Amino acid sequence: MQVVKKSLRFVVPPLAVGMVIGATCDFIMDCNDPEPVHYSPQLASTAVFVGGTAGIGRAMVENFGNRTLGNANIVIIGRNRAAAEEIIAQLPKSKDPNVKHEFVQCDVSRMKNVRDATQQVLSRHPKINFLVLTAGLMSTKGRNETEEGLDAKLAVHYYSRWAFIKGFMPALEKAIEGKEDGKVISVLAAGEGQGRIDMTDLGLARTFSLSRAASHAATYNDLMVDEFASRHPGLTFIHAYPGFVRTNLLSSSDSSALQIAGPVLNYLLSPLMLRPNRCATRMWAGVFNHTGGAHQLSSLGRGLETPFHGTLDQRQKLWAHTAQITGVTSK
Ligand SMILES: NC(=O)c1ccc[n+]([C@@H]2O[C@H](COP(=O)([O-])OP(=O)(O)OC[C@H]3O[C@@H](n4cnc5c(N)ncnc54)[C@H](OP(=O)(O)O)[C@@H]3O)[C@@H](O)[C@H]2O)c1
């Protein structure tokens, strides 16, 4: 009994402190949350989620499914069929037999897969209202070239995103032709690249490092939304920073140290981390509150104070490089 009492003395105070810190952080985060946004379109909308099988993407699928009470076509593109089927099984169901919730298998680090998946989705969904791009990975390896000659991390964080947007463009345009929403959100690291871009080595074939890959992918996404917006007025293009979110990003990395550290860090830092659903609510608020043009959003779903826009020359050279690398040639 004495031993139990003694151990409780060591366990209870830190737990209590942790709960108070957690509740305080939750309160502060609640105060910062954007106003809840009501979304109830008259026609069934279509949302495509690339990377919707886990983490922030999964939370964005679930949030959207619940908001629309299942009355929206939902397409999850990703690698993990079992996870997608489990998510789809738990979404509210529509009474309309034409509304579908489906999974399309695709490892997005390969541009050929991206082109094939795009065509599959387009053949069933000529109109797309929301394209949500969240596929991502944590890697401690250096340049990890696919057989297509791209670094896998840059392929997932940038090239595949550009290729999906470009490939789905006819369906996004169709949505706004019918006066519906036509919006794209890429969740990565808006503004975090601090404008770093090496115009002499786009794709970092010669000058790769992990930190350059991270900053360049962020800057490429900033430039990507600007250039798409200038070419497609009426559509909305968003690059967002999600904040520090409690997901499996670390534990699913290719480093065994991070695989072990991930759950421990998630536990220890949990009061300071956003739950995926809260992040998803903020990201959707960002999507619903911004219409037309290009936007770089903070983790609150609000416009960044100092977005990076780059020069016309940077945007156009990156565009030409990416079009050639991805091989996507829709209008
Ligand atoms: N969590 C954070 O604190 C944080 C902070 C800043 C930025 N971000 C960025 O936010 C995005 C989402 O992060 P997260 O925390 O939600 O990560 P996560 O929980 O690890 O989820 C990543 C998702 O991407 C998918 N994915 C990865 N590689 C893929 C590939 N080659 N093909 C298809 N799907 C692939 C995963 O699919 P599988 O199920 O097949 O693995 C999973 O669905 C990432 O781009 C990340 O860099 C996150």
Helicity, in percent? 40-55%
Mean pLDDT: 91
CATH architecture: 3-Layer(aba) Sandwich
Strand proportion, as a percent range, falls in: 5-15%
Strand order of the largest sheet: 3-2-1-4-5-6-7
Provide the CATH top-level class. Alpha Beta
Global shape: globular
| Superfamily (CATH H level) name | NAD(P)-binding Rossmann-like Domain
Q: Indicate the CATH topology.
A: Rossmann fold
Rg, Cα atoms, Å: 21 Å
Q: Distance N terminus to C terminus?
A: 75 Å
Q: Output the helix-strand order.
A: HEHEHEHEHHEHEHHEH
Number of domains: 1
The main β sheet shows up as:
7 strands, parallel
Note poorly predicted spans. Answer: none
What bound compounds does this protein have?
NADP nicotinamide-adenine-dinucleotide phosphate
* Number of distinct beta strands: 7
Number of alpha- plus pi-helical segments: 10
Structural class by helix and strand composition: alpha/beta
Keywords: Oxidoreductase
Pfam family, one: adh_short
Protein name: NAD(P)-binding protein
InterPro entries: NAD(P)-bd_dom_sf, SDR_fam, Sec_Metab_Biosynth_Oxidored
What can you tell me about this protein's structure?
47% of the residues lie in helices and 11% in strands. With 331 residues, it is of the alpha/beta class. It has a single domain, classed as Rossmann fold. Strands 3-2-1-4-5-6-7 form a 7-stranded parallel beta sheet, sandwiched between helices. Strand 1 (45-50), helix 2 and strand 2 (72-78) form a beta-alpha-beta unit. The longest helix is centred in the N-terminal third of the chain and has 31 residues, at 2-32. The N and C termini lie far apart (75 Å). Bound molecules: NADP nicotinamide-adenine-dinucleotide phosphate. NADP nicotinamide-adenine-dinucleotide phosphate binds next to helix 2 and helix 5.
